[in-house]
Amino acid sequence: MANGRSLSLGREEGFTKLLFDPDTHRVLGGGIVGTNAGELISEWSHSRWRPVCDAADIGLTIHPHPTLTETVAGAAEAVEGTLTDLYLPRK
Q: Fewer beta carbons under 10 A from the terminal one: N or C of the chain?
């Protein structure tokens, strides 16, 4: 529900989750469910095979607004603590 594009499509049921190594913040895997999930997987899957790609790299990559691909950037920014589109209390 935090993504502007999904709201404009009237779809609230999607979810994007990325798994990162806690020490290096490298991508370990992830999952995306919802409308166009198959197309969104490529947003993070290419980073899995790059030797130096981490959460900061994904978060700093340009993701046009409003698009569903912003959810991938948001997941990476949540790990880095730089997500501004959604309030996430510190753990």
A: C
pTM of the model: 0.73
Which of these is catalytic: 25, 46, 63, 65? Answer: 65
Domain that holds residue 54: 4-80
Whether 57 maps to a domain, the answer reads yes
pLDDT in tens, 58-84: 888 888 888 888 888 888 888 888 888
User: What is the spatial distance between Cα 43 and Cα 26, in angstroms, rounded to a whole number?
Assistant: 15
Cβ–Cβ < 8 Å for 58, 40 = no
Our answer to whether residue 25 is catalytic in this structure is no
pLDDT higher than 70, residue 20: yes
